[in-house]
Specification:
Elements lengths: L1 E2 L6 H12 L6 E5 L3 H14 L4 H5 L3 H11 L4 E6 L28 E7 L4 H4 L6 E2 L5 H12 L6 H10 L4 H15 L14 H10 L10 H16 L5 H10 L5 E2 L5 H4 L10 H13 L3 E6 L2 E6 L1 H7 L5 H12 L13 H13 L9 H21 L3 H19 L4 H16 L3 H18 L5 H17 L2 H18 L5 H16 L3 H18 L5 H16 L4
Parallel strand pairs: 1-4, 1-5, 2-3, 3-4
Antiparallel strand pairs: 6-8, 7-8
């Protein structure tokens, strides 16, 4: 594993290793471990790619099956687990230090696991880990970095070495300063402003004027350098670089999809008044040019990423309200669409860390003010997590939402009920039938009082309660509920309405479980015929009904 201070270059070294191994193999995987969602989601996606069945993942055997398959690979492979600063996230149901966590030692001579972390305590990682500590660069190598970026016009090698020593040899600081001096050096001297630093010596003098340079491992070590870079961009006419960087820094420590820098929403804020989309894009490119952000695309999603130290130094709680509006608009836009849409999953995966992070925003006067703006985005993100099979992470988000909404709006508010309903579905899928049943029964009692027996929401809750009862083996109760729902739907909906077909399909499943195979087959065949007409022969619901009919016919002796 690679250990060292923030900004010392751990991720850069890991990227270099990954690029080298890609010459030999396409089995190179990168997992972000900044939070539980990305870590578990990334490992789950890798397990599926390696052929681990979903049912093994669902019962909590993700790590066992993943590492069994990785160890059996004959081809060379590399797994990078980046930014694992909180090693507890890698424990999973076991213990990282004991070799039973989500990341484990393996027996394959062809494989390599590379972890980057600020935590270099051997006890954290266990005796199987080999720790490589990255330290700041020496004066000579630091001078090389500065000269490579800024060029010889910025001064001599000796002056570069003195500045590198003043910067503590921290690669991130060297990179930022080198890019800054390169940007200034592009202009002829006559067009530079008075006092503008353009050489190694001048930059070192400006640092000396600001007092002692702090320890290079903290964000404050670079604050003066970044301030000078932002001053330079502002002088060049990029009037929104400061507020834009502050908005980006308020998001989670993850690449920010550019949908969260929507010019239309930013333009509603005083700090961006009169700023066009072209100016915002130019500001992003200018920030990238000085190394303060990185513009990239991943899985077809354009993003802007900040180094954690840049993010820590520039976050501004005073702009939380703007971040909340950006999240709310993005989550409900046509671009994000429906969270269950497979084609939108890459964008939702990029949005999710930021929607969850926004639940920590505080307005200072009313803790619920910003929460009530962002809860919808978090709820939609939970739906996306659920659709992608990340049940545990979806459940944690919904538990937080249920607790916060209950306090802000009340337990019986429709928004609270919606999140409780979604949480109960996850509990049912995870096998916690008793708790799921309790939640559905409580919601149903409220809906009958407030909405009435025939309201669509009441029927949906009854339907999901019947699913739980079926899972628990209470088939008679489940059948009675389905039959009651059908009576209402036959009187209020068209014969082949989608919800009616769902009810008939699930009633047939219960009849099959009760041993009434002939009745079940007749009902399922009717549903299949209707779904072929209404949905088409290749729709997932049609295929599911076909599978059930095959199973029922097999039970009837007609395989």
């Amino acid at each position: 594993m690679l250990q060292g201070l923030g900004g010392v270059g751990k991720t850069s070294v890991a990227v270099s290793v990954a690029h080298r191994l890609q010459r030999e193999t396409d089995r190179v995987w990168w997992i972000g471990a900044q939070d539980a969602s990305r870590c578990t989601g990334g490992l789950t996606a890798l397990a599926r790619q390696l052929g681990v069945p979903d049912e093994e993942i669902a019962v909590g055997r993700l790590a066992d099956q993943l590492w069994r398959r990785l160890s059996a690979l004959a081809d060379p492979w590399l797994l990078v687990v980046d930014n694992a600063d909180d090693a507890r996230l890698l424990d999973g149901p076991g213990r990282l230090a004991l070799g039973t966590g989500l990341v484990r030692p393996h027996r394959s001579p062809r494989g390599l696991v590379l972890v980057t972390s600020r935590d270099g305590r051997p006890g954290t990682w266990g005796g199987h880990a080999v720790l490589h500590r990255l330290t700041p660069l020496g004066d000579g190598h630091g001078a090389d970095v500065l000269l490579d970026l800024a060029g010889p016009s910025a001064g001599s090698r000796e002056e570069a070495a003195e500045l590198a020593r003043r910067l503590g040899g921290l690669p991130l600081a060297l990179h930022t300063v080198g890019r800054y001096l390169a940007a200034v050096g592009q202009r002829p001297a006559r067009f530079r402003d008075a006092g503008e630093t353009a050489t190694f010596a001048e930059f070192r003098a400006s640092l000396d004027d600001g007092g002692a340079f702090p320890h290079p491992g903290t964000a404050t070590a670079l604050a003066g350098i970044w301030r000078m870079s932002l001053d330079l961009l502002t002088e060049r006419g990029h009037r929104c670089v400061r507020p834009l960087l502050e908005v980006l820094a308020n998001f989670a420590d993850a690449p920010v999809p550019l949908i969260l820098a929507d010019p239309a929403v930013l333009g509603e804020d005083e700090a961006f008044e009169g700023v066009s989309g072209a100016e915002i894009w130019a500001a992003l490119q200018a920030l990238a040019g000085l190394g303060l952000v990185d513009l990239a695309a991943a899985n077809g999603v354009d993003t802007v990423a900040l180094h954690p130290l840049v993010r820590d130094a520039h976050g501004s709680p005073g702009r939380y309200a703007l971040n909340a509006r950006l999240l709310d608009e993005a989550a409900e836009s046509d671009e994000t669409g429906v969270p269950e849409d497979v084609e939108r999953w890459p964008l939702w995966s990029a949005l999710t860390p930021h929607t969850v992070h926004a639940l920590t925003f505080e307005s200072g006067s009313d803790d619920n003010e910003l929460f009530l703006v962002t809860w919808t985005a978090a709820m939609l993100a939970a739906r996306s997590l659920y659709a992608q099979g990340q049940l545990s992470q979806a459940g944690k988000v919904l538990e937080e939402l249920v607790s916060r909404l209950g306090g802000a709006l009340g337990e019986d508010h429709p928004n609270t009920i919606l999140c409780r309903h979604n949480l109960a579905r996850i509990l049912d899928d995870q096998g916690d039938y008793d708790q799921a049943r309790t939640i559905f029964e409580d919601i149903l009692a409220t809906q009958r009082d407030t909405l009435g027996e025939h309201h669509q929401n009441t029927l949906v809750t009854q339907h999901n309660l019947a699913l739980v009862l079926d899972d628990q083996g209470h088939l008679d109760q489940a059948r009675t509920i389905y039959e009651d729902i059908l009576d209402i739907e036959h009187n209020t909906l068209a014969e082949n309405a989608p919800s009616t077909l769902i009810t008939r399909n699930n009633l047939a499943v219960v009849l099959h479980s009760q041993g009434h195979h002939d009745l079940a087959a007749a009902e399922m065949a009717a549903v299949l015929s209707a779904r072929r007409r209404v949905l088409g022969p290749e729709h997932p619901y049609t295929l599911s009904t076909q599978r059930w009919l095959d199973a029922i016919n097999a039970a009837r002796g007609e395989p």
